[in-house]
């Protein structure tokens, strides 16, 4: 596939397939990419990717575009889902979320043109595996990021980005409250549906014992059946209409926080390299002043002193270049 604009192709995720390997069992999804050609016939690429491949793509996009908000992936299964992660409902829900994830990437003006996305959408399994194996591991990148972030909170951060962080934190807190309340309501609905089911059975038994009250009891039973049907419908749509959208919003707030943290780390790197350069420059000036001091007993000390000055003269250009590079990165981060 040649370089193409983000409006020139569309992607679809479907056809989940279970793989039973001796050392691993997983689900892969078919990804079909149709590329529109102006002069030639449309091209089509069909590949299969598993969830870990999507993780690789997102981590590489974060590594390549550290100051952009990379869309969030659906979360890994929790403890309960681990027991049922091969059920049709779970697989279809995950497939729909992965499809949405790719739609967001392909509609993004930057991510859609990335060679990483092109590789993900078009490379055959062997080629893709070779690239993913040669890349740094996700854990290594996360560890490196955490080491870079150490101490950056002592930096005076840009008020504009701090306001975004505060807004995101408040939004996240409110979404968590809504999610918790919705989960409690869902739990109570499950209990209510069970109680209504028990009440319906009791009324049906009562019908057998009191035929003279059949008209009234039939009305009560029909009302319970109607309410029970409504409750079951609410229970069925909870996951797709409430739980999944809330979790998706929460994942997006986390993605924004991650992008802000990476931007703050860039500022911290710039300021720390700038301060280190200033400290080295002052140290060099002080050593040069002391080097001009006359005295017979200072000969050995002066030799050591001149070695330090020479070392600083070699280090300062490197540090100044690093400061300039970090400043450029900060400017890009602030624009992003």
TrEMBL record:
The biological processes this protein is annotated with in GO are:
autophagy of mitochondrion; endocytic recycling; piecemeal microautophagy of the nucleus; protein transport; reticulophagy
Where does it sit, as one GO cellular component term? early endosome
Molecular function GO terms recorded: phosphatidylinositol binding
Q: Which domain of life is it from?
A: Eukaryota
UniProt keyword annotations, A-Z = Cytoplasm, Lipid-binding, Membrane, Transport
Membrane topology summary: Peripheral membrane protein
Q: Which family does it belong to?
A: Belongs to the sorting nexin family.
Does this entry carry the keyword Cytoplasm?
Answer: yes
PX domain sequence ranges: 7-127
- Is the keyword Iron in the record? no
**Subcellular location, principal:** cytoplasm
Q: What is this protein called?
A: Putative sorting nexin-30-like isoform x1
Q: Where in the cell is it found?
A: Cytoplasm; Endomembrane system
Matches recorded under Gene3D superfamilies: Arfaptin homology (AH) domain/BAR domain, Phox-like domain
Task: Show the taxonomic lineage.
Answer: Eukaryota, Metazoa, Ecdysozoa, Arthropoda, Hexapoda
């Amino acid at each position: 596939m040649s370089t193409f604009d983000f409006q020139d192709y569309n992607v679809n995720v479907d056809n989940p397939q279970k793989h039973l390997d001796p050392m691993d069992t997983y689900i892969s999804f078919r990804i079909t990419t149709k590329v529109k050609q102006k002069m030639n016939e449309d091209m089509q690429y069909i590949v299969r990717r598993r969830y870990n491949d999507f993780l690789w793509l997102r981590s590489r996009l974060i590594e390549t575009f550290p100051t952009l908000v990379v869309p969030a992936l659906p979360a890994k299964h929790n403890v309960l889902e681990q027991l049922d992660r091969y059920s049709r409902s779970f697989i279809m829900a995950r497939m729909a979320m992965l499809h949405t994830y790719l739609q967001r990437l392909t509609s993004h003006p930057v991510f859609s043109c990335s060679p990483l996305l092109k590789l993900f959408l078009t490379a055959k399994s062997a080629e893709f595996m070779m690239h993913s194996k040669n890349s740094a591991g996700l854990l290594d990148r996360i560890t490196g990021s955490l080491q870079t972030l150490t101490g950056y909170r002592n930096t005076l951060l840009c008020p504009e980005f701090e306001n975004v962080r505060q807004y995101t934190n408040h939004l996240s807190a409110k979404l968590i409250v809504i999610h918790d309340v919705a989960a409690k309501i869902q739990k109570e609905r499950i209990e209510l549906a069970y109680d209504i089911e028990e009440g319906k059975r009791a009324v049906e038994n009562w019908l057998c014992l009191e035929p003279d009250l059949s008209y009234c009891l039939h009305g009560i039973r029909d009302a319970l059946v109607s309410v029970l049907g409504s409750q079951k419908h609410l229970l069925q749509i909870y996951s797709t209409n409430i739980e999944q959208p809330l979790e998706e919003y929460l994942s997006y707030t986390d993605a924004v926080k991650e992008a802000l943290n990476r931007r703050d780390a860039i500022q911290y790197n710039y300021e720390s390299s700038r301060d280190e350069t200033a400290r080295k420059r002052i140290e060099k000036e002080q050593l040069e002043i002391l080097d001009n001091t006359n005295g017979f007993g200072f000969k050995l000390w002066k030799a050591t002193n001149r070695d330090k000055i020479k070392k600083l003269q070699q280090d300062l250009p490197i540090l100044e270049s690093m400061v300039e590079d970090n400043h450029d990165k900060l400017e890009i981060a602030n624009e992003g």
